[in-house]
Amino acid sequence: MYKRQVDPFGARWTYTADPISQELWESRFYWEPVNRMSKAQAALLNLCQMIVDHLKQSGDMNQSALYSLVGGNKRNFEQAINRLKSDGTIDITQGQRNAKIIRLQFP
Q1: What pLDDT score does 1 carry?
Q2: How large is the greatest C-alpha to C-alpha distance in the chain, in angstroms?
Q3: Which of 90, 35, 19 is nearest to 60 (CA)?
Q4: Strand locations in 1-107, DSSP E?
Q5: CA–CA separation, 30 vs 58, rounded Å?
Q6: What is the average pLDDT across 69-98?
Q7: pTM over 0.70
Q8: Whole-angstrom Cα distance, residue 50 to residue 98?
Q9: In the chain, what are the helix, strand and coil shares in percent, each to the nearest 5?
């Protein structure tokens, strides 16, 4: 069994349904802040979610292109990338001219 520390998190579930049949068309969980979380922790988790959302939308990309989409502080961006890599959410491979190619481990 795998015992790894899990940080507190919150989620908000949204959905879109057919107005006539009420059949579910689309659903998604969105990250929500947790009261016990510090501002720095919340900002890091928000940045992680932004990175994952961009990778889902655009597919694999090099780190500098991803940073220009996400923006913000470079140090915080690198912390978020390291966290996602250690969590197994992303994989980083070497591209041409030593570029770091980032891709999601799962779709």
Answers
A1: 56
A2: 54
A3: 90
A4: 10-17, 24-32, 61-62, 90-94, 100-104
A5: 19
A6: 90
A7: no
A8: 24
A9: 40, 25, 30
